[in-house]
Amino acid sequence: MSSTTLATFESSLEGVGVELVSTTAERFETALEPHLDAPAVGSPLPFEGVSLPDTVDTDPTVEALEAAKTGVTAAGYGIADYGSVVIQGGPDGEEPVSLYADEHVAVVAASDVLPGMGAAFDRLAADIRDGTGQAIIATGPSATADMGALVKGAHGPIDVTVVALEDR
Amino acid sequence: MSVDDRQQKAEHIRHLLETEGDSVHENTQVFNDGRYESTAALDDYERLKDEARAIKEDAIERLPELVEQVTETVEANGGTVYLADDAEDANRYIAEVVDGRSVVKSKSMTSEEIEVNEALEASGADVWETDLAEFVLQLADEAPSHIVAPAIHKSREEIAALFETVYDPADPPETAEELTRFARRVLGEKIADADVGMTGANFITADTGTLALVTSEGNARKTVQATDTHVAVAGVEKVVPTVEDLQPFVELIGRSGTGQDITSYVSLFTPPGDSPTLGDAGELGSGDDREFHLVLVDNGRMAMRDDDELRETLYCIRCSACANACANFQHVGGHAFGGETYTGGIATGWEAGVNGTEGAAEFNDLCTGCSRCVDQCPVKIDIPWINTVVRDRLNRGESGSFDFLVEGLTPDAEPGGLDLQKRLFGNFDALARLGSAFAPLSNWVAQTDTARSLLEQTLGIDRRRDLPSFERESLVAWFADRGSTVAPAAADRHVALYPDAYTNYVRTDRGKAAVRVLESLGVHVEVPAAGESGRAPLSQGMVATARDNAEAVYEALAPAVAADRDVVVIEPSDLAMFHREYDRLLSADAAAALRENSYELMEYVYGLVENGADRDALANGAGERVAYHSHCQQRTLDLEPYTVAVLEDRGFDVVTSDVECCGMAGSFGYKTEYYDLSVDVGESLTDQFSTAETEDRTVVASGTSCLEQLDALLTRRPTHPIRLLDDR
């Protein structure tokens, strides 16, 4: 990942109304803190030396899920041209955690921010063949124009924040 | 069509224009503008379209093999595949799987096509649409009016009233945001209680068994995640070979549809998925035992694959670009321009394919062949051609008695039962020849109340339209009499000016202006007696007659082409025949010869001036303010800029319209049943020419139809751009 790619990622994210927070593994908790409205739910993060604070419920009930203000998950990769993150869901609950809370915080390793859709599909194809059962290319918050005007937050999150780990 | 049928149709369209037209127009305009903007920002737009087209061509070619492959893959993944012959077969299987349990659905046009909701409800299951637009339609018990935004015809106020009637909430939601939150809450409960999640699929990959779902609301994700049984319903044509093949479609579909670079969620599910379900006891349940059923629906598709003319329909990715780019659709929406399920230009292919040719009979005429959708389709389907072919089949399918009067006037190649109105317009050349021969008497007679009433009653020609007034002396006769003023030996270029039927018999002035302008630029001009291009019969679905005309035109122009003369065409719809449709009507060599040697008049003038012809021989605009409406087919051929460039070069101050079509579209606006729609579409154009900035400008248009429409709807008399350059 080049610095240009990360800059493109940031401006594409801005274009779809998503803030990019750049941090390091060590400073992750501090960087996350302002974006962690309680109650928060999450699924375990796979990055070395990075974990979720105890205030984040990683084994929520249905009720906790629906009441959550924030949901934190990892994203397998980012796509700079589009400002997308790829959410790979599995038994740890990335899918419901990223979907039910008002705000989704997606954590991605900066080295996994890919320049465009071509590179993303190379990775997607390889991962799917390796058994990734679910990959959501998510771009901005959920939205609908079905109710007479564009509304952010339809069935999914109203806000999205992406945290990039510069040293991962 | 009988007088009553025409009246009923006119009434239906008027009703929709009043009740749904505003919402549809407002929303499709946003999608249409968005598509232009978003695709313009894509560097490799054309390459991606070529790639997408090639993938679909290959996939449909190898469909049986791919269906077999995807069946093996999905079964190896732990799912089940059911290949349903038709709607009934699909519904029977799905009802067995559902077995009376509660179902939540995300949006799927294929499930609309098979009417699975009705079948499931009849089997005792509870079914809820979770897409907000589909939810609105479910509550209102209405059909989709757009393939991507199915409730596009409903205003916010109507939705608010609907929610209030159905749910009678203490604090009725009013704003779009309140309505969304309200629907989310209601549907959230349905999702939590459901046992079965049903989705469609935009694409299915044969190599991995992956479903791609293109959505924005998040309901498809929840539908799959919350439940422990996933049923995906999709047409067989959705199968593509590999995961990598998804890339061009992912980049094109949102841009082509709603004008978004990408929709919020492109979900790649390779089911059965293992995300935790919403369990019964308030805990998240294990997703390990999720069942998955892929129902691949044939329902006429394999027969479409064998049909050389309808096959292209199967490439359709249902993005809605053809609907959003269509002037008629923008004004009246899918409840007029659509069949039982599908809406917009490509609906003719789908409805004819899944419901039989008659399935497209009601709305097929709403495609005027303006061709604005052609360059917008991400898989490059020739949608006007599909509409033409189905119209031809409908013409031939109708049984009726010979009408000796019209039969005698119109020695065409069409069946006896052909609708008289279509036959009349399809043989415009014969009519114009007669009208000219008997002018001015024919014009006086045609204008009488008796004649207008008769024309309306028997042929459905609306009496509110002025009829063309035929000239006694045709352009060809005028030129034969006058001769060329530039000697062949003294000329740099030699032109055969094509005398289209309108220019030849009705608007001879623009033909004469064209001759004078070309000669002033040092060109030797001849005007060969070539007949009508075939555009008129083609627009009525009279393909055989169009082919006869095309062959005759080719014969008439071939000597000029062989002698290295340039063929110059005044009427854009005829040039579009030479450049697009002749590929389907003539031999490849003949079509190529005409295409490569023919030019639109103003494009040609531009070329002459750019290559050193004396521009000062043309009239000087001296700052004259002009409002220019290019022609739909001319814009599809990217020829609008030449007229603007030439006029500006000559000192005219030019603004252009940006509507897709004038709404007249040849014969369309004359027809009683479509008069109101034609005027409604035309008013979008005249509104642009009635602003403070444009209201006093000289109105200029390239197409005959556009000129007629502008003449009817504006008080200023419009003119062809060549007449501004004619320094006589």
At the first level of CATH, the class of chain A is: Alpha Beta
Structural class of chain A: alpha/beta
Low-confidence stretches of chain B: 398-407
Tally of DSSP β-strands of chain A: 12
Largest sheet of chain A: 6 strands, parallel
Q: Say what the CATH topology of chain A is.
A: Rossmann fold
Query: Quick one: CATH superfamily of chain A?
Result: NagB/RpiA/CoA transferase-like
Low-pLDDT residue spans of chain A = none
Largest interface: A-B, 49 and 65 residues
- Derived structural class of chain B: alpha/beta
Give the strand order, joined by hyphens, for the main sheet of chain A: 1-12-7-4-2-3
Give the helix tally of chain A: 5
How far is the N terminus from the C terminus of chain A? 11 Å
In a nutshell, what does this entry contain?
Chain A is α/β, with parallel strands linked by helices.
Account of the 3D structure:
The complex is a heterodimer of chains A (168) and B (728). By secondary structure, chain A is of the alpha/beta class. Chain A contains five helices and twelve strands. Chain A has helices at 3-15, 28-32, 62-67, 94-100, 117-129, and strands spanning 19-23, 40-42, 56-57, 70-74, 77-79, 84-88, 103-109, 113-114, 134-139, 143-144, 151-152, 159-165. Among the domains of chain B are: 59-301, Rossmann fold (3-Layer(aba) Sandwich), CATH 3.40.50.10420; 475-725, no CATH class. Chain B is an alpha/beta fold. The longest helix of chain B has 20 residues, at 21-40. In chain B, a hairpin with a 5-residue loop joins β10 and β11 (284-285). In chain B, α1 packs across α33, α27 (543-562) crosses α29 and α30 packs across α32. In chain B, strands 1-12-7-4-2-3 form a six-stranded parallel sheet, with helices on both faces. In chain B, strands 8-5-6-9 form a four-stranded mixed sheet, with helices on both faces. Chains A and B meet through α3, α4, α5, β9 and β10 of A and α8, α9, α10, α11 and α12 of B. β9 (134-139) of chain A pairs antiparallel with β9 (265-269) of chain B, so a sheet runs across the interface.
